[in-house]
Amino acid sequence: MPGLRREEIASLAGVSTDYYVRLEQGRNITASAEVLDAIARALQLDEAERAHLHHLAKPRPAKRATDRPQRVRPGVHLLLDGLTTPAFVLGRRLEVLASNRMARALLTDFEAMPVAERNHARWVFLDSSARERYTDWETVARDNVAVLRMEAGRRPDDAALAALVGELTVKSPEFGRWWADHDVLIRGHGVKGFHHPIVGELEIRYEAMQLADEDQTLFVYSVEPGSPAERALQLLDSWSATPVPDDARR
């Protein structure tokens, strides 16, 4: 933490310097939730960073079910299909588990990809179309890194996550550089800008919601009524609903 010595952090947190150093080094000590919260306050950590600290101190043990493919409940599929704006579900490693027609039209057709490649972070970093699709690609990309770093703190023994991070580090210089920053993020809501080849520029709000009893996040996009973005989505809806002629598929 630039500007603070270990002795100062320990003093602010109400622990001894030796205890804090041993905790920082990951040595075999068990810190209480109260001590971790005190250190988080001393370091002025935000909500995501505080949660990450607790994950690092007390990581969740790996479970056999973690390696099984995640499935989206039938009710969630019905919900996605009933929405008229883009919506999709991401898994714990940012796998795209499900998406509706509007999401596929706005972003890319994840369902046309091999299952192993249906990953939002993988698409963002390794597909050139993603760089063109987002008006602020770097912010989106860094957010993906921070979300994966958060998950790595929760499940340090997740082999599939380690493989994904390894692949992206090798294939994307930006990913490796930003992974080393150790930034973490809990997604909630915000605004994203898009440049779509059919409907042009548009800004869309998003809400990220954790699905009950699942390590899955539902993303729903929305626009202001009567706005240019709404008109752009209406045009996108019409375009994506138009059947492609057979001769155009060849």
Write the layout of secondary structure elements.
Layout: H1 6-13, H2 17-24, H3 33-42, H4 47-57, H5 74-82, E1 87-90, E2 96-99, H6 101-106, H7 120-126, H8 128-133, H9 137-154, H10 159-171, H11 173-179, E3 189-196, E4 200-210, E5 217-222, H12 228-241, H13 246-249
Antiparallel strand pairs: 1-2, 1-5, 3-4, 4-5
Helix pairs in contact: 1-2, 1-3, 3-4, 7-9, 10-11
Which short descriptors sum up this protein?
5 strands, Beta-Lactamase, alpha+beta, 2 domains, single chain, 250 residues, 5-stranded antiparallel β-sheet, 13 helices
Describe the model.
- The chain contains 13 helices and 5 strands.
- Helices cover 48% and strands 13% of the residues.
- The protein is elongated, with a radius of gyration of 21 Å.
- The chain has a 5-stranded antiparallel β-sheet.
- A hairpin with a 6-residue loop joins strand 4 and strand 5 (217-222).
- Mean pLDDT is 88; it is low at 245-250.
* Strand segment tally: 5
User: Can you identify the CATH class of the largest domain?
Assistant: Alpha Beta
Largest sheet: 5 strands, antiparallel
CATH architecture name of the largest domain: 2-Layer Sandwich
Radius of gyration using CA atoms only: 21 Å
Give the low-confidence spans. Answer: 245-250
Tell me the structural class.
alpha+beta
Average pLDDT, rounded to a whole number, is 88
**What's the order of the H and E elements?**
HHHHHEEHHHHHHEEEHH
Instruction: Report the end-to-end length measured between terminal Cα atoms.
Output: 58 Å
3D shape: elongated
In short:
With 250 residues, this protein is of the alpha+beta class. The chain has helices spanning 6-13, 17-24, 33-42, 47-57, 74-82, 101-106, 120-126, 128-133, 137-154, 159-171, 173-179, 228-241, 246-249; strands at 87-90, 96-99, 189-196, 200-210, 217-222.
